[in-house]
C-alpha cells in the first residue's frame, strides 16, 4: 500500500469556524473544483488538479490561522463541539476569528 | 323526690305555627357552563397552540437551512481531501461503471487481494 499524502487534518469544527476566511481566499478554486465535479462526474482523477488546488489553498490558510489566530480558532471549534455542531450558537466566536483573519492573515494574500 | 311533679299534665312537642321550613335535600350544583363556551375555549387553546407550534417549526426549518448552508461551505475541502487520499491509496479503478466512495478502512484493507495495490 502506498503512503497517504500527509495533510494536516483539521476538525469539522475548525473548518466550519473558518469557513468565511477560507472562502475569501480559496473561493474561486473551490467553485472551479465544484464546476469540474459537475461537468466531469465524480471520478476523482478527472478533477485532480482542482482538488490539489483546493487542498493547497485551504491548508495554507488553515496553517496561517492556526499559527496567528490559534486561540480564536480553538475557541470556535470547542464552542461547536459543546453545542452539538450547531454553528448558529457560535457566531460570536466566528466573528472574532474573522476579525483576526482580516487583520493578520488576509494582507499576506492581497 | 322533690324534683318530680307527678301531678303535671303531659305536653306534646308540636311544630311551630306555620310548620317547619322545607328541608334542602336535593343536590346543589352551580349552573353548568354552556357547551358553546366549552367548544370555543377548546378550539381557542388548540388554535393558539397550533400557531405557536408552526411558528416554531418554521424557525427551526430556517435554522436547519442555515446550518446546511454553512456545512456546504466546507464540503469542497472535504471532497478534495477525500479524492486525493483515495487516489493516493491502493484502489481498483471502478470508474468505467460508476463511482463508489472509498469505504475501506485499514482493518478491512488486510482482507483485500494484494494485486490491487500493484496498479
TrEMBL record, chain A:
Keywords: Disulfide bond, Electron transport, Mitochondrion, Repeat, Respiratory chain, Transport. Its main location: mitochondrion. GO terms for cellular component: mitochondrion. Transmembrane segments: none annotated. Belongs to the complex I NDUFA8 subunit family. Accessory subunit of the mitochondrial membrane respiratory chain NADH dehydrogenase (Complex I), that is believed not to be involved in catalysis. Complex I functions in the transfer of electrons from NADH to the respiratory chain. The immediate electron acceptor for the enzyme is believed to be ubiquinone. PANTHER family: NADH DEHYDROGENASE [UBIQUINONE] 1 ALPHA SUBCOMPLEX SUBUNIT 8 (PTHR13344:SF0), NADH-UBIQUINONE OXIDOREDUCTASE (PTHR13344). This is Putative NADH dehydrogenase. It comes from Tieghemostelium lacteum.
TrEMBL record, chain B:
Its main location: mitochondrion. Complex I functions in the transfer of electrons from NADH to the respiratory chain. Accessory subunit of the mitochondrial membrane respiratory chain NADH dehydrogenase (Complex I), that is believed not to be involved in catalysis. Pfam families: GRIM-19. It is a single-pass membrane protein. Belongs to the complex I NDUFA13 subunit family. InterPro entries: GRIM-19 (IPR009346). Coiled coil: none annotated. GO terms for cellular component: mitochondrial inner membrane; respiratory chain complex I. The chain crosses the membrane at residues 36-55. It is found in: Mitochondrion inner membrane. Keywords: Electron transport, Membrane, Mitochondrion, Mitochondrion inner membrane, Respiratory chain, Transmembrane, Transmembrane helix, Transport. Signal peptide: none annotated. This is NADH dehydrogenase [ubiquinone] 1 alpha subcomplex subunit 13.
Amino acid at each position: 500500500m502506498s503512503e497517504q499524502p500527509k495533510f494536516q487534518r483539521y476538525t469539522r469544527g475548525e473548518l466550519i469556524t473558518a469557513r468565511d476566511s477560507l472562502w475569501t481566499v480559496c473561493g474561486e478554486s473551490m467553485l472551479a473544483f465544484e464546476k469540474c465535479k459537475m461537468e466531469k462526474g465524480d471520478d476523482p482523477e478527472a478533477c485532480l488538479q482542482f482538488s490539489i488546488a483546493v487542498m493547497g489553498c485551504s491548508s495554507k490558510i488553515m496553517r496561517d490561522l492556526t499559527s496567528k489566530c490559534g486561540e480564536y480558532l480553538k475557541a470556535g471549534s470547542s464552542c461547536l463541539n459543546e453545542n452539538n455542531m450547531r454553528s448558529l450558537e457560535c457566531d460570536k466566536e466566528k466573528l472574532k476569528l474573522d476579525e483576526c483573519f482580516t487583520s493578520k492573515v488576509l494582507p499576506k494574500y492581497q | 323526690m322533690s324534683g318530680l311533679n307527678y301531678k303535671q299534665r303531659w305536653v306534646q312537642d308540636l311544630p311551630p305555627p306555620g310548620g317547619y321550613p322545607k328541608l334542602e335535600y336535593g343536590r346543589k350544583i352551580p349552573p353548568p357552563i354552556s357547551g358553546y363556551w366549552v367548544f370555543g375555549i377548546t378550539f381557542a387553546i388548540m388554535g393558539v397552540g397550533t400557531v405557536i407550534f408552526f411558528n416554531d417549526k418554521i424557525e427551526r426549518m430556517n435554522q436547519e437551512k442555515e446550518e446546511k448552508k454553512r456545512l456546504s461551505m466546507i464540503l469542497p475541502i472535504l471532497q478534495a481531501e477525500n479524492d486525493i487520499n483515495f487516489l493516493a491509496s491502493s484502489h481498483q479503478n471502478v470508474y468505467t461503471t460508476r463511482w463508489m466512495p472509498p469505504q475501506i478502512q485499514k482493518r478491512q484493507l488486510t482482507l483485500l487481494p494484494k494485486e490491487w495495490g500493484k496498479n
